[in-house]
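Deviation from plan, reported transparently: oxa(dethia)-CoA complex.
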Amino acid sequence: MGVITGTGSYAPARIMTNDEFAAYLETSDAWIRERTGIRERRIAAPEEATSDLAVSAGLKALESAGLEAVSLDGILLATATPDLLFPSTACLVQARLGADKAFAFDLNAVCSGFVYAMSVAKSMIESRAARRLLVIGSEVMSRALDWSDRGTCILFGDGAGAVVVEASEAASKGLETFRLRADGRYWDMIHVPGGGSRRSGEESSPFIRMKGGETFKMAVRSLQESVMEVLSSSGVSPSEIDLLVPHQANIRIIDALATRLGLPPEKVMVNIDRYGNTSAASVPVALDEAVRSGRISEGSRVLLTAFGAGVTWGSGLLTWEAETQKRSRS
Ligand code: UT7
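Because the crystal trials were delayed, the predicted structure below was used instead.
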């Protein structure tokens, strides 16, 4: 059984408020807050890249697990904004952490990336391909934004979150059921045209293009279906969930999902007001904040869910048994 034994996150120091957009774009703090739930977001410093954020979050996760990087078997890094086209950002992180015995690879499922990576981590632990993994979601979305497009630039922010996943004989529960989905027919719903190998046709802009309204409707429908699939195959009802940790794309998406599941606000983790949409970093940052603020404790039943470009979506059910595993280690 795979168990999360440590969490960490990192947010760049620079806070960008809605009023800063209103100063040069036809938008307002009120519109952004009402339509998205976002009050501010973090923006990476010019010299900061995705690997820098990932290393900071990873170190905090290792510290909270009480482990050294050299004891890791592998690093899985979910990102859509890598430092370089190649090598992978995970390899840069592996070197910086001194995780000398670890394999390392990136995984790109955009906003669903962390949920995808956790599902892969669970499978690697259960198949005994690894016993100790660092799973990171890290993004510098600000480098992929067209700052003159009010439909997208106000939505995204930068950040990183990480968890340590370990194999456990002591814990009776941990990473339980994960379900992943994709539908590439909708690849152009949210995409970045430039920077890859396709040169013909569309102009090669390096910035995000998004069909906001269509994405919104599909996100609500897909998240609900995905969550219900995970719950029904685990024999768990929505009322048995202690905390839903959803991808933070729009407060109205989160509220619609919570209403459909009948979950009261105290069972839903929300931090979109402070970070905006940080893509693959959004779920692990929210998870880390939930753990550190005591909203998740030993035995809590937690549901992760995310939807993003691809389109991709997925959910995962877990029971928090970090302390049980840490005790059995010492
Ligand atoms: O990470 C997963 C992927 N992302 C998402 O899940 C995002 C999903 N989509 C959304 O969050 C919302 O669709 C948006 C926040 C992007 C847009 O909100 P909306 O309520 O769906 O607005 P809309 O696109 O229907 O646009 C309504 C109006 C439009 O004006 P007209 O055409 O009615 O005159 C937009 O041009 O709001 C306008 N608008 C804005 N007005 C002020 C769009 N962005 C802004 C803005 N400030 N920043």
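The chain has a mean pLDDT of 96. We consider this an acceptable substitute for the interim report.
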